[in-house]
Design brief:
Distance between the termini: 17 Å
Largest sheet: 2 strands, antiparallel
Strand content: under 5%
Radius of gyration: 20 Å
Strand order of the largest sheet: 1-2
Helix content: over 70%
Oligomer: single chain
Number of helices: 6
Order of helices and strands: HHHHEEHH
Number of strands: 2
Structural class: mainly alpha
Shape: flat
Length: about 180
């Protein structure tokens, strides 16, 4: 996991990602082979391999954002283009969660996926999407001067994937019987 993040930081992620993941997963398999008598080889290998992909590969993309060329337009901020887009991914996710929570508490009547996350509602998910879309598009265009079309697309992408990521994390927590993912 650390090798994937470091390779992204060094700017060699495209060259190193496949070999690092390959040797990591092979190492996981060999380590599990050593402990095979416990009888749960396949689940342990799958779980550890998933950690390499979910944590290492996905987190390395946040590091890769920093390497995008250019600066955020029309501001006095010393913020790279990649840093700005990463902040908007975070701001979009936070706004999606906030709008979904507020409007879900007020208007939520229809459960979204009760077996995964019993308190999430369809109404909250729709409000989260709309809130995220508006916040990202408005802040990105009006405050930082990104082109409106790009911010509409960015808001659309974040608005779709933020709640899906939240549901995946809820499912992970539920499968391990833990309440807090921190």
């Amino acid at each position: 996991v650390l090798a994937l993040v470091i390779s992204a930081h060094l700017g060699v992620a495209t060259a190193w990602a496949a070999p690092v993941m390959t040797f990591s997963i092979l190492g996981i398999m060999l380590e599990a082979l050593y402990y095979h008598r416990r009888g749960n080889w396949a689940p342990e290998v799958a779980l550890s391999s998933c950690a390499v992909l979910y944590i290492g590969l996905l987190f390395s993309h946040s590091v890769l954002h920093r390497h995008l060329d250019g600066m955020v337009p029309n501001t006095g901020l010393n913020l790279s283009l990649g840093g700005g887009l990463l902040w908007f991914a975070l701001i979009g996710t936070w706004s999606s969660d906030t709008f979904a929570y507020i409007f879900g508490c007020i208007l939520g009547k229809h459960h979204l996926m009760p077996s995964v996350s019993p308190k999430k509602s369809i109404e909250g998910a729709v409000a989260g999407f709309i809130g995220c879309f508006i916040v990202v598009a408005a802040l990105g265009n009006l405050w930082l001067g990104f082109p409106l079309l790009k911010m509409l697309i960015w808001g659309l992408v974040i608005g779709i994937f933020a709640p899906l990521g939240d549901l995946v994390e809820s499912l992970m927590k539920r499968s391990f019987a833990i309440k807090d993912s921190g």
